[in-house]
């Protein structure tokens, strides 16, 4: 019997991150990169510190953003691993550990920061 | 009357028993408007060099035996025309990623073993024997697999697949597309037997959706689509197996 691949776990995270990147990315770029700077539809205060800090203190926003960042990390880790494979660098256990380990570390950090922000309100 | 022109065909030559390494040999071939690359090779064999070895049979894109690389692209040589390359020369090589048996003829053993591993035949469920009667299918049920049933085993997709090139343990496009062809057939009940092939690292997970297989397929089989549908199936199987009764995981 051929051993079952554990790829479904990482492929799901990769797919989730990719889909969210495609959905949320352009909107974020539009708002942060274009609309806010030229003041279209947003006041000059729209993205100041207090405003943003208040937003992230809300559990939905704080944790929502943390999960988004986590999925982006896993998406990137998976892509990097496979691109390295295409370039002839074999995806050894160690390389997988480095890629997905960094993603897991980054995700844990994001959740931790969100937790602190939310708890402090 | 189509006019005769001349084109240079550069062929890879290799006889593993006598040659140390493959080399190229060029031939000047007179051709007319409607002549295919295969006919060019046949001209060489009949008039210039009887030792040139290549496979062919139907001459009409049906048998799948004439695949080769023309200017680094995997094509059916019977479906590729010399006029499209003239006045430049063309280079004809055996399909990439396969061992060479001789000249343009490759060794398909690896593919045949993979094809066998996917149980490429209908496995009816036990207790579902219509006797002398035919098994009926609706037009929709036929559409579910008809596209994937068009494969002629020409192996262009394996020559185009960079993943198979990097690691030939990968089950590969045509075998996985044919696996899906039988899974998608309403008369078949053999899914469970094929799941192991799908779920393996060398199964659908060997694919990174480069998509070249579907680009080069002369029969529009779209193996990339079949494989990626089965990534979803494999993911469902991975997570949902814990809900299944023991012994069927
Ligand atoms: S899937 Fe297409 S390219 Fe691949 S072997 Fe079948 S017919 Fe040829
Ligand atoms: S000779 Fe049969 S497919 Fe080309």
From TrEMBL, chain B:
Which InterPro entries does this one have? Answer: 2Fe-2S_ferredoxin-like_sf, 2Fe-2S_ferredoxin-type, 2Fe2S_fd_BS, 4Fe4S_Fe-S-bd, 4Fe4S_Fe_S_CS, Beta-grasp_dom_sf, Helical_ferredxn, SDH/FRD_Iron-Sulfur
This chain's source organism reads Ectothiorhodospira haloalkaliphila
Q: Which PANTHER family match?
A: SUCCINATE DEHYDROGENASE [UBIQUINONE] IRON-SULFUR SUBUNIT, MITOCHONDRIAL, SUCCINATE DEHYDROGENASE IRON-SULFUR PROTEIN
Q: Which cofactor does it need?
A: [4Fe-4S] cluster; [2Fe-2S] cluster; [3Fe-4S] cluster
| Record-annotated Succinate dehydogenase/fumarate reductase N-terminal domain positions | 10-112
Stated family: Belongs to the succinate dehydrogenase/fumarate reductase iron-sulfur protein family.
Annotated metabolic or biological route of this protein: Carbohydrate metabolism; tricarboxylic acid cycle; fumarate from succinate (bacterial route): step 1/1
The name on file for this protein is: Succinate dehydrogenase iron-sulfur subunit
Q: Name one GO biological process term.
A: tricarboxylic acid cycle
Q: Which UniProt keywords apply?
A: 2Fe-2S, 3Fe-4S, 4Fe-4S, Iron, Iron-sulfur, Metal-binding, Oxidoreductase, Tricarboxylic acid cycle
A Pfam match is: Fer2_3
Q: What is its EC number?
A: 1.3.5.1
Could you tell me which residue ranges the 4Fe-4S ferredoxin-type domain spans?
149-221
Q: What class of enzyme is it?
A: oxidoreductase
Q: Describe the subunit structure.
A: Part of an enzyme complex containing three subunits: a flavoprotein (frdA), an iron-sulfur protein (frdB), and diheme cytochrome b (frdC).
Q: Which GO terms describe its molecular function?
A: 2 iron, 2 sulfur cluster binding; 3 iron, 4 sulfur cluster binding; 4 iron, 4 sulfur cluster binding; electron transfer activity; metal ion binding; succinate dehydrogenase (quinone) activity
């Amino acid at each position: 019997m051929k051993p079952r691949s554990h790829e479904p776990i990482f492929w799901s995270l990769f797919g989730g991150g990719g889909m969210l990147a495609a959905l949320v990315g352009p909107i974020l770029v539009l708002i942060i990169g274009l609309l806010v700077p030229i003041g279209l539809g947003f006041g000059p205060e729209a993205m100041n510190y207090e405003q943003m800090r208040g937003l992230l203190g809300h559990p939905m926003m704080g944790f929502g953003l943390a999960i988004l960042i986590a999925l982006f990390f896993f998406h990137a880790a998976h892509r990097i691993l496979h691109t390295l494979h295409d370039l002839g660098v074999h995806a050894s256990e160690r390389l997988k550990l480095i890629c997905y380990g960094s993603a897991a570390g980054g995700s844990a950090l994001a959740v931790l920061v969100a937790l602190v922000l939310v708890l402090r309100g | 009357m189509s006019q005769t022109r001349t084109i240079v065909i550069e062929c890879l030559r290799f006889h593993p028993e006598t040659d140390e390494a493959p080399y190229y040999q060029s031939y000047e071939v007179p051709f007319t408007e409607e002549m295919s690359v295969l006919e060019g090779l046949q001209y060489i064999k009949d008039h210039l060099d009887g030792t040139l070895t290549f496979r062919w049979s139907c001459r009409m894109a049906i048998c799948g035996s004439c695949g080769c690389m023309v200017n680094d692209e995997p094509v059916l040589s019977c479906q590729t025309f010399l006029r499209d390359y003239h006045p430049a020369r063309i280079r004809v090589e055996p399909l990439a990623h396969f061992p060479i048996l001789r000249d343009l003829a490759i060794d398909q053993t690896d593919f045949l073993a993979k094809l066998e591993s996917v149980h490429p035949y209908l496995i009816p469920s036990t207790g579902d024997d219509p006797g002398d009667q035919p098994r009926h299918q609706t037009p929709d049920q036929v559409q579910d697999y008809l596209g994937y049933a068009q494969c002629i085993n020409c192996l262009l997709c394996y020559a185009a697949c960079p993943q198979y090139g990097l690691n030939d343990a990968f089950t590969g496009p045509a075998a996985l597309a044919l696996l899906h062809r039988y899974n998608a057939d309403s008369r078949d009940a053999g899914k469970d037997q094929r799941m192991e092939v799908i779920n393996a690292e060398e199964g659908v997970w060997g694919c990174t959706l480069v998509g070249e297989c579907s680009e080069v397929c002369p029969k529009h089989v779209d193996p990339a689509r079949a494989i990626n549908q089965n990534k979803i199936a494999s993911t469902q199987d991975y997570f949902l197996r814990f809900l299944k009764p023991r012994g069927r995981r």
